[in-house]
Amino acid sequence: MTNNETKKGILAALLLLVTAWVAPSRAAAQDSLGTTKEVINAQMISLGSANLLDTYLSPEKYNGVDLRYISHTLRFTPGRRWAHRITHYGVIASGDDRNEKGNLMQGLYTLDVAFIRQYDLLGGRLHLLAGGMTDINLGAVYNSRNQNNPAQIRMSMQIGPTASARYDFDLFRRPFSIGYELSVPILGLMFSPNYGQSYYELFSRGNYEHNAVVTTPFNAPSLRQMLTLDFRLLGARLRIGYLGDIQQAKANHLKQHAYTHALIIGYVKNLRITHK
Known about the structure:
Number of strands: 12
Largest sheet: 10 strands, antiparallel, barrel
Order of helices and strands: HEEEEEEEEHEEEE
Oligomer: single chain
Number of helices: 2
Low-confidence stretches: 20-33
Mean pLDDT: 85
Distance between the termini: 52 Å
Radius of gyration: 21 Å
Strand content: over 45%
Structural class: mainly beta
Helix content: 10-25%
Shape: elongated
């Protein structure tokens, strides 16, 4: 089997797995007509440190700030075990090199779709969720010092397990909720130029050099985690927490990473949607 045939097979497997996760959620939505759906939606902003590396653009590491807008939605039907989670990330990161003479900027959009099974314990106070997720990333990185090849495309699709836990409790007669969420990609495809290959060669001349790369924990060990605390203040449900996002890959003799540790603030809404 050729390398292209292998990659086509991996892509087909990814699409089949995505279909397998999305199709049950559609069926559940159709079966739930005439029932009430619970929706927990959080709108958040995170601000923290960024450590960026892209050896296609520069061998230097760049340190700076990471700013994100995060929309996190969990949909489920009371009495049913399966839930659907959709998370959007809009990311802007910027960093300087150690001499503060160069700047690396990154803009990225990430869509994370998960189909997860719920387990309610301790009288409904502890909620455990586990299942599979699909992670799609699209964006670009720009180096202010480069004349040739100043930018790099970010494009990838990954699948893997995801799990979360939420515990509801009362303190000083006020309701609180503490949660933790973890996602780890285990198989995917990413775009990467080859070492020394220009985008002109790739797009104008069509010189393909294994630019679709299969990713696994061996060449792209990554994870995203979030620890949050929800509480009520002046009638609103607010959220504070920590976001840790470790994304890295080694492909075609090139390395890239984006390490983020950030503070989260936002608000949470609980909605009930009744289908007739």
